[in-house]
Amino acid sequence: MKNIFNTHIIVLFTLFSSSAFANLKVMTTTTNLKSLVQEIGGDKVDVDSICKGTQDPHYIEAKPSFTLKASKADLLVSIGLDLEVGWLPLILRGARNPKLLDGGEGSFVAGQFIDTLEKPTSTISRSEGDVHPDGNPHFMLDPLNSIIVAEKLKEKLQKLDSENSLFYEAQFKKFSERMRMKVSEWRQRIKPGLKVITYHKTLSYFYERFKINNVAFLEPKPGVPPSASHILNVMKTAKEEGVKNVLVENYFDPTVAERVAKDVPGLKVNMVPVSVDGDPKITNLFELYESLVTTVEEK
Amino acid sequence: MRLSIYTLLLFFIFPCSNIFAKSNTFNPDLGLNLLFLSQNSSRTKTDDGMKLQEAEIGFSSDVDTHFTSKATFSIAAENGVYAIEPEEAYVDTISIPYVTVRAGKSKMPIGKHNQYHTHAYPFINGPLMNVSILGEEGLNENAIGASAPIPFPWFSEFIVDLAQGDNANLFNSGKKDNKLVVGHFKNLWDISESATLELGLSGANGKNDNQMITHLYGADLTLKWRPVDGGKYHSFEWASEFLEKDKKGSSDGKLSGIVSHLKYQLSQRWYAQYRYDYLGLNKSKSVAASKRHTALFAFLPSEFSGIRFQYETIDDGQLEKEKRVSLQLNISIGAHPAHAY
User: Fold this and answer.
1) Is residue B232 within 8 Å of residue B268, measured between CB atoms?
2) Which residues from chain A sit within 8 angstroms of residue B154, using beta carbons?
């Protein structure tokens, strides 16, 4: 009788405490953030990203299935800086999960820890295209920024899941040491002052880190498709500056870039993934940065 | 003397400017939508010409830790006279998990189109069945309601509203104790990473001006596709709705219709659309069956502006079909919350 009673107690205890062993459910807005959570969280977290690696994160449709996932999440990791302002609030409203709201215990906005580039210096308006009032939100493309965000993310995970505090600390140490080592190696491979042309202002932080000089954008203004006259100007600049490389983020149409390359001798168009899973070969942040370095380095 | 006046002013201006800067922080998000329309019809000329079709002023903000609020005011002309009306003004709870309670004046969850604001209509005008059955303003009521997810493996939500029932076409019994109940059951499946299918069922019951019951039934089915690769440049939508009223006590109290539209994104900023309306699935004595074909081309330079050209032919049983050409400029300034999926 006592044995049966004890067995019941053990079973009940296991059932009720099983939630203590369940992984932290994390939702991220981009695949770069998802990769970062996986690096620090390891097998202690279940993480999913709303935006896919081949999608433009500015323009995601707030599908109700995302709402369903968000309703079950313990933590939402987002970029902020108005990158997701067009769709994330709708998902959160439908999720009815108050802790994920801005400032809540389940909210982590990476952008608030970054000293952003391209902060507007005067009053801005939409006549300048798709402008971000708090600066360029694509900061995850600077490998050293990923370390800054990783440290704050580690602290957040430790707060939400203190039992695995030491694990997260060790994961962060491993990640930051490896990333710093890789950045030194990448610096050796890229000649400072290298000239490129890009479609959109996605790679500003990558260029700043590795002293790459972006001489023109294919977009006349952010979010505005290239016009014929603008393309002619870009071709002229490419020839004058001796640019060898045009980088087009892989969610844009390569046709325009190919038209420029046809007219400029020695100019190569590269469709570049700027997000993890943007290409089947890019499964984590290290592989993403490596692929960008490989694209720009002169062989 | 002059120096001391300037010093005194400076002493007050700098701290005051800080106060003003701080007081702006909690201002609501403010947005304005403007719709300009130019129309030419072959038969009914009353709405022809150029006009400000509608201006919508929207405010939204969190109220406190419990509520968020949204209000939209619409300015439009009726018989040449402009008037401002509250289109929606409500609060939603934000602190209650799983359930959202809404109180205020809002568009009722009957089908999908009834909940759209004019600037978000897929076409320049609404479906024939919505205008004819629900009225020009749709079913828009003072109500208290709740919505909650249903724990199916797919996205599923149930919404129920207890409304005053002021709609003159369908309810409005004259006795304020008589209330209207509205329900909507929404389901959405991810068919693949690129496609979703939505099925909704709606219903409403309330006393009408004959002191009898009006039943309202609706169903909606929407297929959407946007490829994960290249989704910036191509997408597709096929949406259909059915609506039926059964207003007891009226001689032509039964009327139903369907509407179905296709929307194809040709490139980053160009869209081609087609709509078919049929009103009069139940044969009604005083309202002849109507059929309408609509074709529309849209150029959307950004998410804040759009130019739309629409051509309609309406067959309402008369000898000559009505043909109508419309050109609309649709712009948005200020805060612009995302539309529901």
Assistant:
1) yes
2) 65, 68
- Categorise residue A28: left if φ over 0, alpha if ψ from -120 to 50, beta otherwise: beta
pLDDT tens for each residue of A79-111: 999 999 889 998 998 888 889 988 899 999 999
- Is the separation of the CB atoms in B304 and B329 below 8 Å? no
B26 token code pair: 């909690």
Residue type, A163: E
All structural domains of chain A: 2-184 (3.40.50.1980), 190-296 (3.40.50.1980)
Q: How would residue B16 be classed by pLDDT, with cut points 50, 70 and 90?
A: very low
What was the ipTM of the complex prediction? Answer: 0.84
What span, in angstroms and rounded, lies between the C-alpha atoms of A138 and A32? 10
Alpha-carbon torsion angle A122, A124, A129, A134, nearest 10: 80
Domain B100-334 has CATH 3.40.50.2000: no
Dist CA A273 CA A289 (whole Å): 10
Residue from the list B96, B228, B333 with its beta carbon closest to the beta carbon of A52: B228
Enumerate the residues of chain B whose CB falls inside 8 A of the CB of residue A62: 338, 340-341
Q: Which residues of B touch A (CB under 8 A)?
A: 68, 92, 94-100, 148-149, 154-155, 157, 186, 188, 190, 193, 196, 224, 226, 228-233, 268-269, 301-304, 333, 337-338, 340-341
Is A193 strand, coil or helix?
coil
Q: Which of B53, B48, B24, B58 is nearest to B37 (CA)?
A: B53
**3-class SS of residue B155:** strand
DSSP state of B130: I
DSSP state for residue A53 in the 8-state scheme? T
Across the interface, whether the CB atoms of B268 and A225 are under 8 A apart is answered: yes
- When CB atoms are compared, the residue of A65, A86, A251 closest to B338 is A86
Beta strands B140-149; B100-107: pairing state: antiparallel
Residue-range domain boundaries for chain B: 100-334
